[in-house]
Amino acid sequence: LVGLDPREVDMIGTVLVKDEDGNYQIRGKNPFDVRTYSLEACDSDPKFTFVCNEEMQEGVRLYLDTIQDIMELVADAANPSVEIEARTYPFGRESENVFGTADCIVATLDEIWVVDFKYGRREVSAVENTQALFYAAGAFDKVGGTPDTRVNVVIVQPRVVFADGRSISDWGLSGAELIEWRDEKLKPAIDLTMAPRNIRFRMGAYCGFCPVAASCALQQKVALRAAEGAFTEDVVSLPYEEAG
């Protein structure tokens, strides 16, 4: 794919299938014309298969255009780097259990961009965004940032239009501010998760993304109380001898 501009590739109608590793692979006609990227046959569950439409393609192009614009900004910088699907460790690799995967990181010696792609319709602001700051802290550690490093958080949301008419939310902070957030907010929160007796279960909109929501004790208690409230008036009591 060297020398190929993905923004010029027509993927409309392309069938994508999630493989055993959770990655999407191309089935059938390959718009990149690279045979090794094609799947000749796949019996995956239909829910893991989708056909790329024009809206999806335009959304990805906006994301690619955003990265391309940043790359042009750093073209003349010393040793610029670009990483896709980059694993980041906010506290360095010595904390291997605390990591995230950033969609894209662009970095120079003085500035970092963390770019996140979201295809949903719910507005997500980049301002003090915890997820993006988590990735940024990892990127900051990865490139050896300093308190003077400029950190930029960029969230591309092609299906959302903000008040300024863009589909991009961005925000910036200094390396010193990121260090303060990491040490004073992120670290205490992580430490809390390491002490099970201190964990507080709180339900919220995020529960919809939890893979174990069905077995969550708090969810079960809430459901039980709701059921008790709904059916209490309909309960009929009978003496034991009459129940037969």
What does this protein look like?
With 244 residues, the protein is of the alpha+beta class. 28% of the residues lie in helices and 20% in strands. α2 packs across α3. The radius of gyration is 24 Å and the shape is globular.
Summarize the structure.
The protein is of the alpha+beta class and 244 residues long.
| Radius of gyration, whole Å | 24 Å
Strand neighbour order, sheet with most strands: 5-6-7-8-9
Distance between the termini: 75 Å
Number of strands: 9
Q: What's the mean pLDDT score?
A: 82
Strand content: 15-25%
Point out poorly predicted stretches: 36-41
List the helices and strands and how they pair.
Blueprint: E1 15-18, E2 24-27, E3 38-39, E4 49-51, H1 54-73, E5 81-88, E6 100-107, E7 111-117, H2 130-143, E8 150-156, E9 168-174, H3 175-193, H4 217-231
Helix pairs in contact: 2-3
Q: Which descriptors would you attach to this protein?
A:
244 residues; alpha+beta; five-stranded mixed beta sheet; four-stranded mixed beta sheet; 9 strands; 28% helix
